[in-house]
Amino acid sequence: MAKTAKVRRARRPDVRLPPLAPWRGGALEPDGDYDGARFEGLDLSGQDAGGARFMDCTLADCALDELRLTRSRLLDCLLTAPRGVGTRLAEATLRDVEVVDARLGGTQVHGAVLERVVIRGGKIDYPNFRAARLKDVVFEGCVLVEPDFGGARLERVEFPDCTLKGVDFSGATLADVDLRGTAVLDVARGVDRMSGAVISPGQLLDLAPVFAAQMGVRVVEG
């Protein structure tokens, strides 16, 4: 009897923050350096922190509408209840980061690098992960509406208790992507790129019409 292939699990971040100082420095700046700061209850909408570095920081209950974080680096950070539309994280680096109870829409994460990241709870509408690299990333108990992973690379990525609506894997590369624990798995595009993903027998039955359509097979009652 053949052995079942083992799925490599994602390595989760271990975020241990030092005592933090409340941020009282005004607006964020491009290429700024923020170390050990606590951003709490702030409206950061429309600010430009492109290329900035955030290390050992926490953002709690902050508004992030149109906040520009392009090519920024978030290292050993905790984001709690972030909210906003159009937050820009294109080509950013997130390493050892936890995001809890996000309420985001249209977040731009294309070309970004995520490593040892947990996104827990909340709802993210229309996130753009195109051409991003995700390694050791866990989406846990959250709702993702039409997430776009087109051309992205996902390695050791898990989705326990998540709802995935209209996910797009077009052109993506998957390795040890565990979809078995999803509450809802709705693949809109890119089912042909799911080699490297792991699904349950029940999910296989649910996805059978999508797989058949991809292969050009018509299912007709006799």
From TrEMBL:
Which Gene3D superfamilies does the record match to this protein? E3 ubiquitin-protein ligase SopA
The reply to whether Repeat figures as a keyword in the UniProt entry is: yes
Classification via InterPro entries: 5peptide_repeat (IPR001646)
What SUPFAM superfamilies does UniProt report for this protein, alphabetically?
Pentapeptide repeat-like
Q: Does the keyword Amino-acid biosynthesis apply?
A: no
> What is the top-level taxon of the source organism?
Bacteria
Q: What is this protein called?
A: Pentapeptide repeat-containing protein
